[in-house]
Amino acid sequence: MKDVKVMDTLDAIEIIENDGLSTYDEVITAFQFLIDTGTVWKLQGFYGRTASDLIEKGLCHKVANGVKAKKDPDYGRHNTIDWMIR
């Protein structure tokens, strides 16, 4: 994966919400940034579900500091990254 710089939470959200204009690497990096900061779990449900799905697929990783995905087994199974990478 190419190194993509994410400056802050707003940058990450703009990359994700960019209506298909962002690259795959940019979107994955933006989600990893939101996971790393723990912000992804505080945003609307789409972000947390997609982050959980990306972690499950091995495209992103959990943070070592204890911030984790939701425990619900169905969490991350809807509204996933798949619509962004068609």
Average pLDDT reading: 80
- H/I helix tally: 3
The biggest sheet, with number of strands, parallel, antiparallel or mixed sense and barrel status, is: none
- Output the structural class: mainly alpha
Beta content: under 5%
Report on this structure.
By secondary structure, the protein is mostly helical. It has helices at 9-16, 24-37, 45-56. Helix 1 (9-16) packs antiparallel against helix 2 and helix 2 (24-37) packs across helix 3 (45-56). The longest helix has 14 residues, at 24-37.
Report a brief summary of the structure:
It is built from three helices and no strands. With 86 residues, the chain is an all-alpha fold.
Q: How do the helices and strands line up, and which of them pair or pack?
A:
Blueprint: H1 9-16, H2 24-37, H3 45-56
Helix pairs in contact: 1-2, 2-3
Key structural traits:
mainly alpha, 3 helices, 0% strand, globular
